[in-house]
Amino acid sequence: MEHHKLGKSDLKVSELSFGCMSLELEKGQDHITDLIKKAYDSGINLFDTADLYNKGRNEEMVGKALKPFRDEVVISTKVGNQWREDGSGWDWNPSKEHILTGINESLRRLQTDHIDLYMLHGGTIDDPIDESVEAFEQLKKQGKIRAYGISSIRPNTIREWVNRSNMDCVMMQYSLLDRRPEEEALDLLAEHNISVITRGTLAKGMLIDKPAQEYLGYSADQVAAMKKALDQTKNALSASVKYVQQHPAVASVVAGIRTEEQLELLLNANEISFPSSKLQELSNVLPANAYDKHR
Question: Domains of the chain: which residue ranges?
Answer without folding.
Answer: 3-204+237-273
